[in-house]
Design brief:
The protein is of the alpha+beta class and 286 residues long. The chain contains 11 helices and 8 strands. It folds into 2 domains: 124 residues, Butyryl-CoA Dehydrogenase, subunit A, domain 3, CATH 1.20.140; 127 residues, Nuclear Transport Factor 2, Chain: A (Roll).
Length: 286
Amino acid sequence: MEQLRPLLALYAYNILGSYEDAKDIVQDVFLKFSQLSQENIDDKKSYLIRMVVNLSIDRKRKLKKQTKAYPGPWLPEPIATDDPHLALHRKQILSYSMLVLLEKLNSKQRAVFILREAFDYDHDDIARVLGITPENSRKVLSRAKSDLRADANVAPDKAQMEVLHRYLKVLEEGDLSKLEKLLNHDISVTSDGGGKVPAFRNIIAGVEPVTALLSGLYKKIYVNAETATGWINHQPAIFYFFEGALVTCQIFSIDNEGLDRIFFVRNPDKLRSLQKIASGVVTFSS
């Protein structure tokens, strides 16, 4: 059963948006499962999945209450999707932009959406996992999709990484007109410092404000940082290091070769899992 841990952690992660909390959930489930009489459990894998999903829903409800008091915007914890340890289950990791959008949904909507879109469950299976009817599952999914109006499946695209490299080059050159041309008209930037490191408290939107922000931050802070690029939740990302310590993970949503949304993850608790970057590959600690 131990080989199921990575998969179970992804069920929990997609619901919670926190990989550290997801691993805690899986550990709790394994402990509870070990205390059960298992002789009457025909499908142990399905039973564990049901336990993980339902415990994650309960935990997410509690986390939602806590995030109301969160200092500034709350962003999900990033996962490196070019990590070879996740190769078997990589397709089950939702895009980063989608994880952000899922915060609009309640816990049950989120669970139905994830089971259907990330894990290809049919509505009969979802009903069994969540203890609802198949018809209710269909209605919940329909409402969730209406609220999101977005695609959950984002595949890594070489062209997107090329856009990211052009973006870095433009920042180095300090050419504001070229930077503006790389930004879509509805560009926005969100930063999460968790109250532990400096971060802007409001979402910055619009080409001119974002151009000034990105250029100013680069000149003031990141020009002296070591940088690497990689894939976070199937989306291109830049990693900034000072003296070997990862201080910022910037994740990019790119549409029609233009930057659409940028997420600055600066909360050190959410960067803890990203331990090592070499040749553009991010690996997790064991």
